[in-house]
Amino acid sequence: MQDVDPVNAPGAELSIVELDDGALLALARDGDPEAYAALFTRYSYAAHRLARHLGQKEDSEDVVAESFAQVLSLVRRGKGPDRAFRAYLFTTIRHEAARRARASQRVTPTDDVERIDRPVPFGHGRLDEFERSAVRAAYESLPPRWRTVLWHLDVEGRTPQELGPLLELSPNSVSALVYRARSGLRQAYLQQHVKPSEPDSRTCRDVRAKLSAFVRRTASVREQEKVHAHLSACQECLSIYLDLQEVNREVG
């Protein structure tokens, strides 16, 4: 059985959820409410995760709703993002979370939405705290041998020839090992983006534990079939899957 994308299955009619962010934004800018609803579905899970991470646990629903509304207002006025919707939304959420934090400290905030439309530096290429912690946790979850080869090659800059005697492997075997380790690190990093809280359904728990392997196409055919069937019926798990797809595109 071939790998099946639950939102682009063979024989399925083309739908709005198959469009990329740029196409959806163009439709939303022309007044199509379904296009922006598709963007909301695609990024709602990630948006709530970020809002909670920024310390807005109790107000995460309000932060996310307000941020989506602010971006929509800009889009309808011909402003805002053209393609990088995820990054733009996350910047808006950071602004809104900061505004609410200042308000809670009795500092008068500004509700000037226009400031969100200005270029915002994304940490000069540095990872934010969540991303750093996700990378760290993913690395620490790997088998010791994978951690060793990644550390020596990617951190210390050593070569497979230098590592061969240390690992008792030929240079070619070291290269194969580091390939598997890097692939495992990418998959473990994706899994860090899955909501840590336990869902009510045991099926949801089982599926979410396999989502990173499903996205990276390393799951067995049987597991792929089970995950695909569940995603077709569970909107919440589908939202997580859609977010992992976007993260996976960034990871490569």
UniProtKB/TrEMBL annotation:
Tree of life domain: Bacteria
GO terms under biological process: DNA-templated transcription initiation
Claim: DNA-binding is one of the keywords in the record: yes
UniProt-listed InterPro entries: RNA_pol_sigma-70-like, RNA_pol_sigma-70_dom, RNA_pol_sigma70_r2, RNA_pol_sigma70_r4_t2, RNA_pol_sigma_r2, RNA_pol_sigma_r3/r4-like, WH-like_DNA-bd_sf, Znf_put
Family to which this protein belongs: Belongs to the sigma-70 factor family. ECF subfamily.
Tagged with keyword Transmembrane: no
Stated name of the protein: RNA polymerase subunit sigma
Classification via Pfam families: Sigma70_r2, Sigma70_r4_2, zf-HC2
Keywords tagged on the record: DNA-binding, Sigma factor, Transcription, Transcription regulation
GO MF assignments: DNA binding; sigma factor activity
Gene3D superfamilies, sorted: 1.10.1740.10, Winged helix-like DNA-binding domain superfamily/Winged helix DNA-binding domain
